[in-house]
TrEMBL record:
InterPro entries: 6-PGluconate_DH-like_C_sf, 6PGD_dom2, Mannitol_DH, Mannitol_DH/Oxidoreductase, Mannitol_DH_C, Mannitol_DH_N, NAD(P)-bd_dom_sf. Residues 34-282 form the Mannitol dehydrogenase N-terminal domain. This is Fructuronate reductase. Keywords: Oxidoreductase. Pfam families: Mannitol_dh, Mannitol_dh_C. Gene3D superfamilies: N-(1-d-carboxylethyl)-l-norvaline Dehydrogenase, domain 2, NAD(P)-binding Rossmann-like Domain. GO terms for molecular function: mannitol-1-phosphate 5-dehydrogenase activity. It comes from the Bacteria. Residues 293-454 form the Mannitol dehydrogenase C-terminal domain. The keyword Membrane does not apply. It catalyses: D-mannitol 1-phosphate + NAD(+) = beta-D-fructose 6-phosphate + NADH + H(+). It comes from Micromonospora violae.
Length: 497
């Protein structure tokens, strides 16, 4: 990211120069570490860090966060140069506000010093470990939930060399924690995965069971001392740009190279299962519950599923941002039918929540013109996202004997997007961990939409068997894909019934 950095850089020495309303709620260095976070990306900084700072500001506690970057050094270097301070710019049609956040007590780069990260995970002062590492880092088959180690994780499971993967870091850290009798800990997935707590638990148990060179009794220690509460997280956080940095500089009077932008809305639902204690997140507006499942399904199917639909259809129609895509004629009407006829009928929402109302709120959020969330950014990793966002909706509808016509449109738009070109012929990037098999399947079935659908539906790592073998779903997807290829997005939506 090329930006010009002025003489004044955000840091502890600059806090008195900030506008009063922009100063952090807690001062870095004054709150001891109690949380380690794996995945020091923009979403964590705009979501869990904000909730935790507000919780500590309201209820106290030793809950400073050490943020660990599993890959990139850029954010670690930027934060270290700024005394772990960063700002969040909240964007709406009415304008923006920028405030500095002081939740971070430290930062680490895992590849550079994995032993330091392992030591943190074994520290008895650390009682909560949160994660935003994306679906890929769990190395789980999205359909079966089985651990599928790559070469790096296989090496981590074998032991010996310092860990290089997220499962490897957790495995080594928990082994050290058990050996030191450091007390219980909660591992909290904040990734958009169905039943993310159970997914994390499954990954952890499989890794512990397959690992070599770990202390005797580790399986039993993990079973008795480690919890994995499920969560639902929600806030739209577009990628930062040089314009994001410049806007924050104007608001703060100093340069912040770790600034993130976000929409006003934020939600966090957390299963309250923390054997070593936790921050008072409820004082920051989080919902503490016994079961996050209904909230997860509400968000994954209604918000994330619709988000994916807008991204694929918008990218095909040549729209750069989600807000611009929503202006495609007839798209809002189609999305409302997707929400009301497919999503709302596929599951039981949390008490007191109407799926259609939640969907309307989601459409309003997506239409925020100040959030420049690129369609291509939302469209990446479809093979990892579609099962929980769309395919599970289809499977549940069909199990209940209902049509899944609008969900089939989303699947068809993803397949059309995977072909790699927009309606006007411009190339589209297809970024996906299964890009090779998907492209090979599309090439195999290139003679017709039916051939393409059959070839991709044979990929069990993407399409659940109950969906792949459903003739009504297959026919609906073929019909929509045929229309999208022949007529393009706008004409297809205009004729949708």
């Amino acid at each position: 990211m090329a930006v010009t950095v002025g003489a004044s850089r955000l840091g502890l020495g600059m806090l008195r120069r900030l506008p009063a309303e922009a100063r952090p709620l807690i001062r870095p260095g004054t709150v001891p570490t109690g949380v380690v976070h794996l995945g020091l990306g923009a979403f964590h900084r705009a979501h869990q860090a904000v909730f935790t700072e507000a919780a500590v500001g309201a209820a106290g506690g030793d809950w400073g966060i050490v943020g660990v970057a599993p890959r990139s050094t850029a954010v670690v270097e930027a934060l270290a140069a700024q005394d772990n301070l960063f700002s969040v710019s909240t964007l709406s049609a009415a304008g923006s506000t920028t405030r500095v956040v002081g939740a971070l007590s430290g930062v680490r780069h895992a590849p550079r010093d994995p032993d330091a990260v392992v030591a943190l995970l074994a520290d008895p002062a650390v009682r909560v470990v949160t994660l935003t590492v994306t679906e890929k880092a769990y190395q789980l088959d999205p359909v079966t939930g089985q651990l599928c180690p790559d070469a790096a994780l296989a090496a981590d499971l074998a032991g010996g060399a310092p860990p290089r993967t997220v499962p490897g870091l957790l495995l080594r850290g928990l082994a050290a924690r058990a050996a030191a009798d450091a007390g219980p800990v909660a591992l909290v997935s904040c990734d958009n995965l169905p039943a993310n707590g159970r997914r994390l638990r499954g990954m952890l148990d499989q890794a512990v069971g397959r690992a070599g060179g770990v202390p005797a009794g580790l399986v039993e220690w993990v079973a008795g001392n480690v919890t994995c509460p499920g969560t639902m997280v929600d806030r739209i956080v577009p990628a930062s740009t040089p314009e994001t940095i410049e806007a924050a500089r104007r608001a703060l009077g100093v340069t912040d190279l770790a600034v993130v932008a976000a929409e006003p809305y934020a939600q966090w639902v957390i299963e309250d299962d923390f054997p070593g204690g936790r921050p008072g997140w409820e004082h920051a507006g989080a919902v503490l519950t016994d079961d996050a499942g209904p909230w997860e399904r509400l968000k994954l199917r209604t918000l994330n599923g619709v988000h994916s639909a807008i991204a694929y259809l918008g990218a095909l129609a040549g729209r750069e941002t989600i807000a611009e895509a929503l202006e495609i004629p007839h798209l809002r009407d189609v999305l409302r039918r997707l929400i009301a006829e497919d999503v709302a009928a596929s599951f039981t929402p949390p008490d007191g929540v109407r799926v259609v109302d939640y969907g309307e709120q989601a459409l309003a959020r997506f239409g925020n013109p100040a959030i420049h969330h690129r369609t291509l950014q939302v469209a990446i990793d479809g093979s990892q996202k579609l099962p929980q966002r769309v395919l599970h909706t289809i499977a549940d509808l069909r199990a209940a004997g209902r049509s899944a016509r609008w969900g089939a449109l989303v699947v068809a738009s993803w397949l059309r997007f995977a072909l790699g070109y927009a309606d006007d012929g411009r190339p589209l990037p297809f970024q996906d961990p299964l890009a090779g098999p998907i492209r090979a399947a599309l090439d195999e079935g290139a003679q017709s939409p039916a051939g393409a659908v059959d070839a991709v539906f044979a990929l069990r790592e993407v399409i659940p068997v109950e969906v792949a073998e459903d003739e009504e779903v297959r026919a609906d997807v073929i019909g929509w894909l045929t229309a999208l290829e022949r007529h393009g997005v706008e004409a297809t939506l205009a004729g949708a019934r």
